[in-house]
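Exercise 7. Predict the structure of Roadblock/LAMTOR2 domain-containing protein from Ammonicoccus fulvus.
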Amino acid sequence: MTQLDQAISDLLSIEGATGAAIVDLGSGMALAHGGNPGFSLEVAAAGNSNVVRAKLNTMRDLGIQDQIDDVLITLGQQYHLINVLKDEANKGLFLYLTLNRANANLALARHKLGVVARNVRV
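Solution. The predicted structure, encoded as tokens:
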């Protein structure tokens, strides 16, 4: 199992996880993905790269000199979490995790997502 596949496996082991991807911000392509959230993770990866780029552009326009930690999108039945990787070797990548809202613990999921994010090596 590759390191990226292991990271996807670790993400999918989070209670309530239905899908996960490691995404290249520049291209919007998923480098690895898994699970079955009920929609295309490839399309979601591309769309969420637009979300992250839009926020980075807005921060630049506002003169905010900081980094994005997480982006949280709450839907009626799902949570979508985006964690932008900060390690220099992983710059330009983010983790994308979908959770079933009915059985996910959001605080614990964010914590575990952060642990996986710190250990991803590409």
